[in-house]
Amino acid sequence: xxxxxxxxxxxxxxxxxxxxxxxxxxxxxxxxxxxxxxxxxxxxxxxxxxxxxxxxxxxxxxxxxxxxxxxxxxxx
Length: 76
Prior knowledge:
InterPro entries: Homeodomain-like_sf, HTH-type_Tx_Regulator, HTH_TetR
Protein name: HTH tetR-type domain-containing protein
Number of strands: 0
CATH topology: Arc Repressor Mutant, subunit A
Radius of gyration: 12 Å
CATH architecture: Orthogonal Bundle
Organism: Streptococcus criceti HS-6
Largest sheet: none
Structural class: mainly alpha
Distance between the termini: 32 Å
Number of helices: 4
Mean pLDDT: 83
GO molecular function, one term: DNA binding
Keywords: DNA-binding
Oligomer: single chain
């Protein structure tokens, strides 16, 4: 199923916000609220795209899957 441009833009904004926060904070200290505020999207929009924060973190950006560098934990 093809995603519309608004959907793709929201995902891109969320991913960029997360990467920005990751440069300044430890992964465990980043909240969905902070990601959404920086991305300028609602928490509802976040959860329309991703089931959980963990799902979001595990899903690499579509246009550059190696951007997370494989350094994120896969289990807890």
